Amino acid sequence: MSYSTTDQAKHVSVFRTLPVHLAIFAGLILLWEIVNLYGFEDRIQADMIAPRPTHIVLAMIDIFFIDKTVWHHLGSTFQKALLGASIGTVIGMGLAISATLSETFRKYIKPWIILMEATPRIAVGPIFVALLGFGLWSAVALAALVAFFGPFVNTFQGLMEIDEESEEMFRSLGASKFQTFWKLRFASALQLISAGWKLATASAFGGALVAEFIQASEGMGVLIAQYVIMITMDYAFAALLSVTIFGYILFKIMEYMDYHLIFWQNDLLMLKVSEKRRKKMGVSS
Prior knowledge:
Strand content: under 5%
Order of helices and strands: HHHHHHHHHHHHH
CATH superfamily of the largest domain: MetI-like
Number of domains: 2
CATH class of the largest domain: Mainly Alpha
CATH architecture of the largest domain: Orthogonal Bundle
Radius of gyration: 24 Å
Distance between the termini: 15 Å
């Protein structure tokens, strides 16, 4: 029953550290508020550099529940980011799988991928606008370009790090190359691959925002830029915080899915899945 002890230890650790994190957060917010109130002689300068947290909260209430400005822009940014992350993940994983299966392909594709990763994203943005025009797809293309490197590296690394003894066992059991790849290599690498998916999603949000700063008529990048131009920094901070909060929620959802998808990495989940399968097959435990 060692799995239950580990699981309980994790929950105890979370409950012990949570009050500390909350206390640190509250202390930082209080310090921020005090600095704004007493650290500047010029009130305009204070509100531009470090708008009060209370004003940022009021701005968030306004853009979410009163004026409701943020919802349309937030949806637009999420659409671009998720499309870009999906396309980037498919391309990155496809290239990584091809590089794993073919040494010749691996030899020629890796330098190009490193070159693409070294290229500044903000410099590529105007080129995508010229090629694809203003609108959705130039932003999606930039988000995909930013997102694909994480899935490529993680998938490639996971597929290349294979246990030779396990591979030999699969061969001795008469497994085909496809079965060995899918049930051994890919299954063993799935934890690293899923980390690449999460990296792609986080990176795609940055790419989408950069694209919106360069060109767009809607999106959180546009909204933040408008608030900065109008020198309403509390609203700019509120918009930025909105992206952070919803991005964090999406990341936690992906972690939850990851936890249940790769069930064999967790002893408790493995036991539950095995029990369900035994019941389905009519085998007593």
